[in-house]
Amino acid sequence: MSYIALTKPRVIELLLVAAIPAMLQADRGQVHLGLVLLTLVGGWLGAASANTLNMVVDADIDKVMKRTERRPLARHAVTTRAALIFGLVLGAASMLWLGLLAQSWLAAFFILLTICFYVFVYTMILKRRTAQNVVWGGAAGCMPVLVSWAVITDHLPEGQPHNWWQAIVLFLIIFFWTPPHTWALAMRYKEDYKAAGVPMLPVVMSAEGVTRRITLYTWATVLCTFALIPAAGWIYAAGAVGFGVWFIVMAHRLEAGVRRGVEVKPLKLFILSNNYLAAVFVALSIDAVLGLETLSGVFSLF
């Protein structure tokens, strides 16, 4: 169980939720079940590698923070050397799995890039040095959509458009979603991060300033989902608008509560942000599986 805990299973679940709709949207109306399963396993191995290596680097601060003090390395349930080997083996297995079994060396390259960026750029450089850590470091969490898109497009018939712009939009949705999601959690555990010397935004900025930025990034996230509407059908459009309004209203409520000086519960927005992203991606998945006429196609008829 300690080795499973090293992989941060709950984090991986969220990453895989982002991967599936990308694969379905990459070839609308078709469900490549074999490729989906292969990609999910390969993506799990890659994410597990990155999370394990992250824990190796962060073992010192994990011991200080109450939220992380029960992690395997913090309580010495696994040795640092064993965890390092485990993480490296998972990373190598992920690349070979995607390259050989999913037959996409582009996806394998993306997974390597993800692991290296998360460990070296985010964990070793950004996390302990700047309050912008999750803004730029969050790019690692956006990579599953590129991995998934690469697997599907590498198997499309010759001449079928790959539409990489849609993968970039999905990447940006998660990119803009990550800061409000993480900052809401960091507001709840502000003292933990302060004790560990990690300059998360709520540690170095007033609650009013943090919630203002949460609102701005929430708007950016929702507007980004709108950019994909022309390439999808009415189910995704309704989901993007409906769930987007819900997300924006809740972000504004959090900011308004902080401005009034009343007690707020930022963890509620953190949980809501998870539900929001899942809901939007489920709407996209259903839309893509049904192969509905895209709205750009509908309007071109008039």
Automatic annotation (TrEMBL):
Alphabetically sorted, this entry's keywords are: Cell membrane, Heme biosynthesis, Membrane, Transferase, Transmembrane, Transmembrane helix
Q: Which GO terms describe its molecular function?
A: protoheme IX farnesyltransferase activity
Q: How does it sit in the membrane?
A: Multi-pass membrane protein
Stretches that traverse the bilayer: 36-57, 78-99, 105-126, 133-152, 164-186, 216-249, 269-292
GO CC entries: plasma membrane
Classify the source by domain of life.
Bacteria
Keyword Plastid tagged: no
Q: Which NCBIfam families match?
A: cyoE_ctaB (TIGR01473), PRK04375.1-2 (NF003349)
Other comments on record: Carbon 2 of the heme B porphyrin ring is defined according to the Fischer nomenclature.
Q: What is this protein called?
A: Protoheme IX farnesyltransferase
